[in-house]
Amino acid sequence: MAIKRSVRGGVPSPYPRFIFHGLRSAQLLASIVVSGIMGYFMYYLRLENFNIPWTFILLLTVSVGTFLALLVTIILYNFTYLPPRCNWLLNGGISVLWAVGFVLLSRSISTSHVIEKQCSSEVWGGDAAAGVCRDYKALWAMTLCGTVSTLAALALDVHTQLKTARRGVYSIPEDDREFRRLGEKESFRVRSAGYEPPREQRDFKILAHESALELDEEIGYHNRYGVDEISER
C-alpha cells in the first residue's frame, strides 16, 4: 500500500517546502563531509599514536548528531507531523556546537595559514602535505556551511513557530458575532399581550385538558372505592 506523504498524519506542514529542504540538504552535506574527514584524520592520528584534538572530537560529535537529528525529523515530517518548537530546540542546540567547533577549528589553523596558502606540492613540500591542506580547506568550508545552514534553519524554525502561533489565535468571525448579538436579544417566540394561538393549537389544548380531567376523575373514583372497601372491612 502506498503511503501518501502529503498527508503527514492529517496535519499540513507549516514549513515552506523549498527553503526547508534546501537548508536541510546543506546541513546533510556538511555533516557527511565533516564526519568523513574527521574519521579519516582520527584514524591516522590513532595509528601514529597521536592525541586526538578536542576540536576533532567536537566536530565529529556535532556532525553525527546533525545527521541523526535530520533523520529523525524527516521521518516526523513525512509520516506524522514535525512541530516547529521541537525542531528549533534541536537546531538551537546543534547550532551552538557548530559555532563552537567552527571557532576552534579557525583558531587552530590560523597559525599555519592553511586558508590563505595554495595547496600545492611546491608550497607544502610534498603531495601528502598538499593533500592534508586540501582536506583542511574542505573541512573548514563544510564546517562553515554546517554552521550557517543550521543557524538559518533555526531562524526558519522560529519564524514558522511565530507564524503558527499567530494563526492559532482564534478570532470570532463576523457571522459568529452577529449570532452572538442575536442570542443576547429577546427570543422571537416571546408572545405579546394580544397574541392568540392558532385555532388548531387551541383545539388541541382543550382536548388535552379534557382528557386529563377524565383521567383524574377515574383515578379519584378508584381511590375512593378502595378506601371505602378498606373501611368497611
From TrEMBL:
Top-rank taxon: Eukaryota
Taxonomic source organism: Diplocarpon rosae
TM helices/strands, residue ranges: 26-46, 52-76, 88-105, 138-158
Protein name: MARVEL domain-containing protein
Keywords noted in UniProt: Membrane, Transmembrane, Transmembrane helix
